[in-house]
Amino acid sequence: MSRAEMAALGWDACDVILVTGDAYIDHPSFGMALVGRLLEAHGLRVGIISQPDWTSAEPFRALGRPRLFFGITAGNMDSLVNRYTSDRKIRSEDAYTPDAAAGRRPDRAVTVYAQRAREAFPDATVVIGSIEASLRRIAHYDYWSDKVRRSVLADSKADLLLFGNAERALVALAQRLAAGEAIGEIRDLRGTAFMVRADWLPGDAWQEIDSLALDRPGRVDPHPDPYAMEPAAAAPATADGAQPVRIVSRSARLSERRAQRAHTVVRLPSYEEVSADPVLYAHASRVFHLESNPGNARALRQAHGEGAGRRDVWINPPPVPLSTPEMDFVYGLPYARAPHPSYGGARIPAWDMIKFSINIMRGCFGGCTFCSITEHEGRIIQSRSEASILREIEDIRDKMPDFRGHITDLGGPTANMYRMACKDPQIESSCRRLSCVYPGICENLGTDHAPLISLYRKARAIPGVKRVTVGSGLRYDLAVRSPEYVKELVTHHVSGLLKIAPEHTESGPLSKMMKPGIGTYEKFRELFDKYSKEAGKKQHLVPYFIAAHPGTTDEDMVNLALWLKKNGFRPDQVQTFLPTPMALATTMYHSRRNPLKKVSADSENVETARAGRSRKLHKALLRWHDPENWPLIREALQAMGRRDLIGNRPDQLVPWQQPVAQAGQAGARAPGGRRTAPGKPAGGKAGRSCAASKGAAARRRA
């Protein structure tokens, strides 16, 4: 991180310099540590510039010019999600900064850092990546400016963008650059995007097709096979009228189809078109998500600019998921498992949260539309081996002096998808479903929890480990299929409270989220209560809900509030929907169209709470118990013709009268309700990437 450290190592220059918006913590939950150790393992000298002053180029010259490239990232979180709440208010803390100091990174950090790196060394190669770059690789709706913005490639002027889990592409890129290959010639790496001429194609065998001719919108649950050949045209008849017989095996047809798709690029509507037409934006979003399976995805391109200045963003197919041995290699590198010594004793909240947690897998096949995991890590689960995970627990025990025997999480984006996969690799490679569990769990999905149960048992049996808890959220619709798993979890791995995310109770918003109905949650709750009682433990579920999600009406939120009151839930920290770039729910928010179905000018209109007052009402209904929200709720109920819900009966939502004195009401107990913990903020962090796991999972994500 400094010239002095370079001198101590005997380096005259770095091969790669990584720039990050986070404090540098050498732990595999932090992207820069993972990437840096990976490059180091392949013989490269890696420098890290952490949270540089972006107001000038001088901090970007601190380690000199990199021999191969600058690697630019905003950090583990999107810089705008990190800085602003869902109400666009500035957060007072940054969990990834020493002493939680705010203001240590710029808005749109990837773009700013890339521009400063180019200013510092105009001839250096600049490569961008991480979640912020991944989610902005095409033209995208930007909630913070309320407009469609260009690809981050066009704004940052970077040479290459790496998206998704980019370890394999990163190593290949470094090796090819080290061998003397020019960055402008490296155009065949999966999981990369770059700018090209409007007429550029990789070779003569390639063809371009228009997305408008491709999209066959409809239900998302069938399994169309994109490799199935169309009936062949009849061969020309011979002189005597006989038809020659052509027999083509299925494997040959599949091989031919794959070869054709591998040399096809789909042209999306241009940036200018999707900016001007919300319907085209929704169409482009739908096509983008349908072309996201590494087994059958085609390259995409999208024009930016008009006339002589027009350029295309070219996006290669997503990276092939890492194998278990590759995952083990990445997580088995010699991490110091500590913040850089230059921070002294400063507290870094994100580090405090995950220092004793372990990431056991990546990816999520849930497909929740408000979630960015799919766009970044993909739907195919990538799992570490049991031996690798157990070794990491032993490393924590042996190398971290403040470890007291509690592993705080064995999880990932979703805690209970470990080693789950499609039963048939061929079906997996051809499937175009947006979710493996919606509208129901796919019959081809393996949902065996036995490997996870085995892992739990072996983890808690390690000498020196007193307790192993699960901090990530889990899919309760999968869990109810394995009562044995629920029993194991509840008996041994819950620390009194378990986060769970039904998100809503009403079918309208749930259908736009691609989440199961509340009945599935009730089944899980029954199992949870049963096994907690059997274990002699008093434990509770903490349900998470989203306010103002696309497809949610005022009536939906009233019904949710009534359900919360009936079940005795008094949420303190509630969440208003935050539209993150490229998510399908963000498309609904911006376009008011549903990209899960046919997209056209007269297709389904998605009701969305966009105005400040509507969003405030939806959030207030989640906190129905707070007297400060009662005037707004009363006014809304009267406007809806629901005066019957105003009063003091248990089946009514809010009373007619305000308390005489509201001071100190936060800790009051309402009849039949649970105590609201005093002193907690009413509007906790927004912008979870996925259901209930995103406090810890977003921070673990590389």
From TrEMBL:
Free-text cofactor note: Binds 1 [4Fe-4S] cluster. The cluster is coordinated with 3 cysteines and an exchangeable S-adenosyl-L-methionine.
High-level lineage: Bacteria, Pseudomonadati, Pseudomonadota, Betaproteobacteria, Rhodocyclales
InterPro entries linked to this entry: Elp3/MiaA/NifB-like_rSAM, Methylthiotransferase_CS, rSAM, rSAM_horseshoe, rSAM_sf, UPF0313, UPF0313_C, UPF0313_N
Residues noted as binding [4Fe-4S] cluster in the record, renumbered to the chain: 364, 368, 371
This protein's record includes keyword Transferase: no
Superkingdom as given in the UniProt entry: Bacteria
Family matches, as NCBIfam families: SAM_YgiQ
Keyword annotations from UniProtKB, A to Z: 4Fe-4S, Iron, Iron-sulfur, Metal-binding, S-adenosyl-L-methionine
Name used for this protein in its record: YgiQ family radical SAM protein
Domain Radical SAM core: 350-626
A Pfam family matched in the record: Radical_SAM_N
Similarity comment: family membership: Belongs to the UPF0313 family.
Annotated region described as Disordered, given as residue ranges: 661-702
Tagged with keyword DNA-binding: no
PANTHER family: UPF0313 PROTEIN YGIQ (PTHR32331)
Named cofactor requirement(s): [4Fe-4S] cluster
Organism: Thauera sedimentorum
Biased composition (Low complexity): 661-680, 687-696
